[in-house]
Amino acid sequence: DTGVSQNPRHKITKRGQNVTFRCDPISEHNRLYWYRQTLGQGPEFLTYFQNEAQLEKSRLLSDRFSAERPKGSFSTLEIQRTEQGDSAMYLCASSWDNTEAFFGQGTRLTVV
Amino acid sequence: AQSVTQPDIHITVSEGASLELRCNYSYGATPYLFWYVQSPGQGLQLLLKYFSGDTLVQGIKGFEAEFKRSQSSFNLRKPSVHWSDAAEYFCAVDSSYKLIFGSGTRLLVRP
Hints:
The complex is a heterodimer of chains A (112) and B (111). Chain A has 112 residues and is mainly beta. Chain A is built from no helices and eleven strands. Chain A has strands spanning 5-7, 10-13, 19-24, 31-37, 44-50, 53-57, 65-68, 75-79, 88-95, 102-103, 107-111. In chain A, the strands form two sheets. In chain A, strands 2, 4, 5, 6, 9, 10 and 11 form a seven-stranded mixed beta sheet that branches. A four-stranded antiparallel beta sheet of chain A has the order 1-3-8-7, with no helix packed on it. Chain B is built from no helices and twelve strands. In chain B, a hairpin with a 2-residue loop joins β10 and β11.
């Protein structure tokens, strides 16, 4: 197992475009989390899945953001009509129940 | 509301010197506490965790942390810093399955 994998590592997009990121968790992990990290700050929770069920969403997750985890395996995070304020590092993590979370290397989004 | 405070934005130490990074938390129940390290442009790597039991926990890379309930603190320590320890360090508390992070402390290591 190679750990949590995120693709792409970097994404540059024009304002108003849609983007989608993918996260492949550690295979036996049932929980998957998305966080956002802006420069000079700690990661902020966005949402989490237990298997395929999305159990919690932060108020940071506006209606332009949607996340899915079909079949409880990989997850996608889509941002529609991107804005410059969406520029950040998007981190995915996975865990088995309430044990420690393992993080991927993140996807850095730049909106120009 | 739960929160984590890391009062030091930057810390500079000389290689070989000891290190202590401060972390204070606000949480009503017994907290699950973590320290993560992040190198530039990378994800987060878990250094150590506290769930219960012994208040002094050992982690990877020679790091340790001490949980002090009376001070609501979970400070990270290392007796002798190596140049490769230069990175950003984040303290976090588990809050209903999600992590709440502090704003981080950037460690600079002088040769």
